[in-house]
């Protein structure tokens, strides 16, 4: 199909990786989506979301009416949602959702932002205060809108590094590495989930057997009392070099508690950490080889089309 081939050539020449849907007329939509006008609209909407905290409660500019804030946020989120739908429409969703993590990031961030916005303004209109906890998530929109399209905005951010390393720095290589890392994330999600589930399970057991002892750290803070604090302590025990500090209060109480910590370290440190490393390396290597094969094949097809 000429329309599909032309869109592929334009995307390749622009340094973008777009999984076009061959059954749709994607050329016009691709030109519109990456036109200066539409990209400018997306940029303005993104900037509005980032500067909205200046006029949101508690505001820096206190004379702005709440209706103005609601209108600006709704317009910005609507533009972001339309951009996401257009980007998804021009691509093969089956391949995209299998290979890329961006669509899931956008859906989660957008849903959390909408829930937070509705909750905030509902409570605000009833005279109650509420903290906008979704503000830090807004910085993810420029990346979440890529939906697997070769990190176009990341390329713009990294352009300045060329002047620091004009000979050694290869932006195309960095883009491929970042894209390959993002493709690897869904494959290691199962291991990460099991790792976190194991930590939470050991946390439940640890709190159950140590909480009644009323132990404290040397600085006076509570030891294995709060569930979330204990989960964080066990995570520190798995990942940092100063992990003996987490175990010492229990050891001072009874040497039998070493059985709990030995079991925890065997499962989480020596099993899950090594398993996570092996799965990450295997999937990263597999995706990298697949990417190199696809790139070589695409270059041969492009050379054949330009003859």
Give a short summary of the structure:
Pfam families: Ion_trans. Helix content is 70%, strand content 0%.
Write up what this structure looks like.
With 307 residues, this protein is mostly helical. The chain has 2 domains: 2-163; 170-307, Helix Hairpins, CATH 1.10.287. The protein is 70% helix and 0% strand. It is built from 12 helices and no strands. The protein has helices at 2-13, 26-33, 36-51, 66-89, 93-99, 102-125, 141-144, 152-158, 171-210, 227-239, 244-253, 258-306. Helix 1 (2-13) packs parallel to helix 2 and helix 9 (171-210) runs antiparallel to helix 12 (258-306). The longest helix has 49 residues, at 258-306. The radius of gyration is 25 Å and the shape is flat. The model is unreliable at 147-171 (pLDDT under 50). GO terms for molecular function: monoatomic ion channel activity. InterPro entries: Ion_trans_dom. The chain crosses the membrane at residues 37-55, 67-89, 101-123, 188-210, 254-279.
| Number of helical regions | 12
Overall form: flat
Straight-line distance between termini: 17 Å
Q: What is the number of E strands?
A: 0
- Helix/strand structural class: mainly alpha
Strand content: under 5%
| Element pattern in H and E | HHHHHHHHHHHH
Mean pLDDT: 77
Oligomer: single chain
As a percent range, the share of helical residues equals: 55-70%
Uncertain spans: 147-171
Radius of gyration from the alpha-carbon trace, in angstroms? 25 Å
For the record, the count of structural domains works out to: 2
Major sheet, described briefly?
A: none
Organism: Didymodactylos carnosus
Membrane topology: Multi-pass membrane protein
Transmembrane segments: 37-55, 67-89, 101-123, 188-210, 254-279
Protein name: Ion transport domain-containing protein
